[in-house]
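Homework-ish question, so no full write-ups if that breaks the rules, but can someone show me the predicted structure for this set?
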Amino acid sequence: MLNPDSVGRTFHSAKSFPVTAAEIAAFAAVIGEDDLTVAPPTFSIRISLEQSQDVLSDPHVGIDWSRVVHGDQKFEIVRPIAAGDVLTCSSTIENYKFLAGNEIVTVRSDLHSKDDLVVSSWSTLVVRA
Amino acid sequence: MTQVGDEILQRVFWIDRELLKNYADASGDQNPIHQDETFAKSVGLPDVIAHGMLTMALAGKFVSDWAGGAVAIKEFSTRFIKPVIVPAGKQVDLTISATVTEVEGSKVRLSVTATSDGVKVLGMTKALVVKS
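A: Not a homework solution, just the prediction itself:
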């Protein structure tokens, strides 16, 4: 059960995420994308979902990650990610509600390269009862 | 000239267990419900299911191919409404199509539809692209 104090809090990733050409190539290969100059539009999930898992699994936040299923996903892309980017991730627990016994949590993830916002994404996760 | 109501020709992507393994490695999402049939069934699923984000990634490929590349996509959102079930040794379809819902200069909004085995798997899928 999510600690209500967590709603509205922002968690900044301790580490940064250097993006390599090999990571972009592996992701692109799965979807049949030949253009490797930029990352596919959903590539940032690789970073944001791991961060969301870290944040929500924190004992002070209190979500049982093993019961989480993905409900909704949204991306706002300022510019595509490219190899050589070094990204930081801040995750904000934007919304939390109960619906039919399930907890529903929306986490916003902002990925920055230095001071510039690159991608904002919203993952709505359903913690099954 | 792109107009509201234009339909983008349907395309079929094929998903099998090998693709799920490759997506797990590429995305870092190693949840066993996407790879291990025994585990998937133990948590009440009919079989191994595809990562929702894999279906969204394939829908993203569909949109970027139409719009002139990944660089064209500015917003992209979806709801995961039904799982794509992937039995061992089989290829299952992910059938994607889209309709133009708004045009404002080079900015185009699309409504995207995705089904597998005739069942709608993504809902309210929308993209905003700047078409080159």
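Now go work out the reasoning yourself. Hint: The domain at 7-15+50-130 of chain B is CATH 3.10.129.10 (Thiol Ester Dehydrase; Chain A).
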